[in-house]
Automatic annotation (TrEMBL):
Organism: Mycena belliarum
Protein name according to UniProt: Cytochrome P450
GO MF annotations in UniProt: heme binding; iron ion binding; monooxygenase activity; oxidoreductase activity, acting on paired donors, with incorporation or reduction of molecular oxygen
Superkingdom assignment: Eukaryota
A Pfam family per the record: p450
Keyword Ribonucleoprotein carried by entry: no
Transmembrane domains' residue ranges: 6-22
Chain residues that bind heme: C451
């Protein structure tokens, strides 16, 4: 190498290193006041990152014990994540607007949404508004269909004859029922019973989660180049189009020919999406992507919650008679209606208590800090721009300040309170329904990004529980012992192998 070129290369390398060192130093200076958990010594960051992959729940618990009500950081393999506990800081995360703490950007990064699902979801998430408004408004009207699908799906998946006991894997059985009943509302009959379609809707979530992990291990510049080769997106759209393409095209054509409220227009999620879609959003691939995404948000969450409910019911069989009495009495009085579900206080309470005690991991509400100045909490803690903040709900869900005997499962904890309050103060004051969120009950999130599907989920969960207690006896296949969760990093799911015994009541 010529001497001037050599000197230029050395100077450039020195400059780049200096800039990098300066940036790292400034970044670390910003981080230093925030305590770190699980990372000490020279290699601590990396060994801590590995430890977090294997023992996230324990490390989050350690942080909460050492720094109660404060922010702390945990090492991921390539970055620090920030976690907050305590009512004040959790509420600040929950209340921050999207432009300051972004949920979309938080998920975009962890799930590589632009590659695994598609940019359309990030550009205009109008399907979330449809869930919040039209879908929620239509739930009572659509309830008979959902109820019918739940009933038929249980008949089909359990396939019981006479009064024999049959043991089935809990999670996968429940997932079949949830996928069918959700899609009865999303796309209607007969597609909601098509095995290949349902497999796609269930599998897509798993593929997105796995492939996002793989893509996240690639160097950033290679992600948009190599990511699409392993992304489930193209296959999802292709298969989704096979099932939904003709139906979507037919609806667009009907609307063109006969106007927006054409005769015979089905009242389902596809129609509601088309009512709100603009321009290029009114195409088969765009609608298919939104159906895939909404199924992603709906199926695994609702199925996990209900599987936990079954584990709670079979490990606490003493609740069955009172649940059954209430469900039978209310259905006899009001029939199978959404109003009837609203009167099932004990079922509502049992579901809420099960959600309080079982979540899908130690952290929730992932947000990316968007403000270039960072995010400043009310206690003065500053989390730098571009960082990821999470909340942990476990401390609040198990705090004796919020719940009496918080470690005990008390299925009627909330219904007892409701009955007491109604006797003393009238109906309006009760604010601990299944769908009510607060910093003490974060199962559906809280405030800015609170789950817009929770009214649908609550309706399905209650209808499934009422259907089971009225029509079946259930028992644990593990002698009343509650099967432990399966934990993968920061994700916890109900034990996937555990079985539940069902017997038809004659
Ligand atoms: C029991 C079942 C469910 C649970 C436990 C659950 C839980 C949650 C939680 C904790 C959040 C908030 C996350 C955050 O703040 O970052 C959320 C958001 C969301 N959920 Fe659910 N969910 C359930 C069912 C559903 C269903 C059935 C749908 C769709 C029909 C749905 C659609 C969504 C969407 C679109 C968001 C994002 C909202 C936003 O970013 O503004 N969820 N859910």
């Amino acid at each position: 190498m010529e001497e001037p070129t050599y000197i230029l290369a050395c100077v450039s390398a020195a400059l780049v290193s200096a800039v990098w060192l300066l940036k790292t130093w400034r970044h670390n200076r910003q981080l230093n006041p925030i305590p770190a958990v699980g990372a000490s010594g020279i290699w601590g960051y990396y060994t801590g990152g590995l430890r977090y992959m294997l023992h996230a729940p324990e490390m989050v618990q350690e942080g909460c014990t050492l720094y109660p009500g404060k922010a702390f950081r945990v090492p991921r393999l390539f970055r620090w994540d920030f976690i907050v506990s305590g009512k004040t800081l959790i509420d600040e995360v929950a209340s921050a607007p999207e432009s300051i703490l972004s949920a979309l950007e938080g998920n975009k990064d962890s799930l590589k949404v632009d590659i695994t699902i598609g940019p359309e979801i990030l550009n205009h998430a109008y399907h979330i508004d449809v869930l919040r408004t039209t879908l929620t408004r239509n739930l009572a009207k659509c309830f008979p269909d959902i109820r019918d699908e739940i009933s038929c799906a249980f008949d089909d998946v359990l396939a019981l004859d006479g009064a024999e006991w049959k043991s089935v894997p809990a999670l996968s059985t429940i997932m079949s029922v949830v996928a069918r009943s959700t899609n009865r509302l999303f796309v209607g009959l007969p597609i909601c019973r098509n095995d290949d379609y349902l497999k796609l809707m269930v599998r897509y979530t798993i593929d997105v989660v796995i492939m996002a992990q793989v893509i996240n291990l690639m160097p950033a510049p290679l992600q948009p180049i190599l990511g699409p080769f392993i992304s489930p997106r193209s296959r999802g759209i292709r298969k989704g189009t096979t099932h939904l393409g003709p139906l979507i095209e037919h609806r667009i054509a009907q609307e063109k020919a006969f106007g927006r409220d054409w005769p015979g227009k089905p009242n389902d999620f596809i129609s509601w999406l088309l009512d709100s879609a603009q321009g290029s959003e009114r195409t088969v691939p765009d609608i298919v992507v939104r159906i895939l995404t909404t199924n992603m948000a709906a199926i695994h969450t609702t199925s996990s919650v209900f599987t936990h409910v079954l584990f709670d019911l079979t490990s606490h069989p003493e609740y069955m008679p009172a649940l059954r009495e209430e469900a039978e009495r209310v259905v006899q009085e009001l029939g199978w209606t959404k109003t009837a579900l609203g009167r099932m206080y004990r079922l509502d309470s049992f579901l809420r208590e099960s959600q309080r005690m079982h979540d899908n991991g130690p952290v929730t509400m992932t947000r990316k800090v968007m403000d270039p100045a960072g995010f400043t909490f009310s206690d003065g803690t500053v989390v730098p721009a571009g960082s990821f903040i999470n909340a942990t709900s476990r401390v609040e869900h198990f705090s004796p300040a919020n719940y009496e005997d918080p470690d005990d499962f008390d299925g009627f904890r909330f219904s007892k309170l409701r009955e007491e309050r109604e006797q003393n103060e009238g109906q309006a004051v009760f604010n601990k329904h299944m769908v009510t969120t607060s910093v003490e009950h974060l199962s559906f999130g809280h405030r800015t990004h609170v789950c817009p599907g929770r009214f649908l989920a609550a309706m399905q969960l209650k209808a499934m529980l009422a259907h089971i207690v009225i029509n079946y006896d259930v028992r644990s296949a593990t002698d009343g012992v509650r099967p432990p969760d399966d934990v993968f990093g920061i994700v916890a799911v109900p034990n996937r192998k555990a079985k539940i015994g069902f017997r038809k009541r004659l």
